[in-house]
Sequence to fold (241 residues):
Amino acid sequence: MEPRVLKSNVNFVKYGPPYMLTDEEPDNQQLLKKKDPDQVCLQDILNCIVPPKRFNSGGYDCIQQLSTEPACRNDIDMLLSDLDARLGQLRVRKTGFCPARSQIYEEAFNELIRQITIQSAEQGLLLMRIRNEARMTMKAYQTLYENSNAVAVKTIEQAKRSKGNLEAQIEEVTEELLILEEELVTAQHRYKMVDKRSNEIMYAITVTQENDLGYIDNGIKQIKVIINILASLIAKGKETE
Fold:
C-alpha cells in the first residue's frame, strides 16, 4: 500500500514519491559540512534547501523529499499561473505585512531554487543563503512591527485613561465654575443692594446736613439782627445821658 502524501495549503514545490523510514536520518546541513564536496549528492543539497516532509501513513513513518527532476518551460509557465491564481483566491494584501502572501511567494521561490539547484548546485546554495537572509530580515521586521503595535496599544490605553481623568477633571472644574458663577451673581446682586442702600443713606445725610446748615444760617442771621438792635439801643441810651 503506497503511503498517502500530505498536501499543504500552498504547494508550489515539486516533491518526489514518498518512501518509508527505517532509521532516524541525520541533519542534512551538518551532513553537508562533514562530507567531502565531491561526495555531496544533489538530493543532500535539495534536502538542505527545503527539509523533507515527514509524516505517518498506515502506521509507518514516511518521508518525502524534493524531486530531482529538471523543470521545463511549461513548468515555469504553470508556476506563474498557479502563483497568480493563489494570490487571487486567498485575496492577500497587496501592501504591508501579509502572512499568506509571504508564504505563497516563499513556496514559489523554493521551487525556483530547486529548479536552479538541479542545473547548478552552487547557484542553488547561494539562493538558499539569500532566502534565509531575507527570511531573517522579514522576521526582524515582523517582530519590530508587533512590538510597535504593542507599544502603540499601550500608549493608546494610557491616552484613554488620561483622557478619562482629564474629562473627570473638566467636569469637576465645570461644576466649580458654575458654583462660582452663581456666587458671583449673588455677590453682584448684594453689591447693588448695598450700593443702593448706601446711596439712599448718603442722600438722606446730605439732605439733613443741608437743612441743619439752613437752620444754623437763619439762627446766625437772627442773632446778628438782635445784636445790631441791642447795639443801637445801647448807643441811644448813652446819648440821652
About this structure: The longest helix spans residues 121-240.
